[in-house]
Amino acid sequence: MLDFHAHCDYSIDAEGTVDQYARAALRAGLSHICFTTHCDLDPARLEHDGKVRMGGMVVDVNSAWLESYIAETMTARELYADRGLKVLCGLEIGYVPGIEALIEETTDGHQFDYVLGGIHTLGGIDIVSPRECAQYFGTRSAREVCAEYFGYLGGAVSSGLFDCIAHIDIYKRCGLELLGDDLKYAHHDFIAPVLDEMVRRDICLEVNSGGLRRGLESPYPSLDILEQAHAAGVGLPTVGSDCHRPEDVGHGIGSCLGLARRAGYGGVAVFERRKRTTLSIEELQGCR
User: Fold this and answer.
1) For residue 125, which phi and psi values (nearest 5 degrees)?
2) 251 belongs to a structural domain
3) DSSP label at 243?
4) Virtual CA dihedral for 107, 112, 117, 122, nearest 10 degrees?
5) What is the CATH number of the domain that holds 191?
6) 177 burial type by CB count under 10 A (0-12 exposed, 13-18 middle, 19+ buried)
7) Helix or strand or coil: residue 60?
8) Per the domain annotation, does 288 fall within a domain?
9) Crossing angle between the packed helical segments 142-159 and 192-201, to the nearest 10 degrees
10) What is the pLDDT of residues 127-173, one digit of tens each?
11) What are phi and psi of 31, to 5 degrees?
């Protein structure tokens, strides 16, 4: 098994050190864990989101935290390599239009294994925050949400800055409660061009079990989106738990693999130094 979406305490909404997550990964029988610390660069939301934690202190994203984070994950990589665990270092970057140069500046010159792109804010509002989401979903229809969301996502894909797109239908996390079942189907008129661009750019999508921990029926994305991605020719997905606590490392990965297989995928993508290789789902499901 493997987990390509893990948030240690460099993410200010997470708890537990790199080492604690690595030990949890070993207990869960994982072969790989990739850390994907939140990195939010939107100048309009720096006071809200542009923070990370380093050495127990909350610091700005433009501080020296990247060097500390990379060094800590590299130490863990060396420590756990002979115990059968590959520790990898990545970022989850929140995309909004207009910050492409900031993203490139952040990722260039650093030896990341994996750069994951996701949409967390629309129109300056955090759509996955229980405190803010009603401001957004309460003033828009399901079609309006998906039109704006997939517009942003199309920009993220077209930028070519990401190896993979995270939780492609994350708007359901808070939106379903406010907009109901209309939001389950509103993507149909907007997602196809994004998937086609993912094929053209050779960018993965992620199967993310975080939705299961939040009471949703399936991982992100839903089976119909994953089937549509497979039919469009989107390459093998990555799988991740989106864990923010050591006890959630690897949670739901079996469900992610099962969903990918149901959608027609026979393997998953693995990244190291931003180069992609593949592992078969059969091989992974045979592991503890």
Assistant:
1) -115, 135
2) yes
3) B
4) -50
5) 3.20.20.140
6) middle
7) strand
8) no
9) 10
10) 999 999 999 999 999 999 999 999 999 999 999 999 999 999 999 99
11) -95, -25
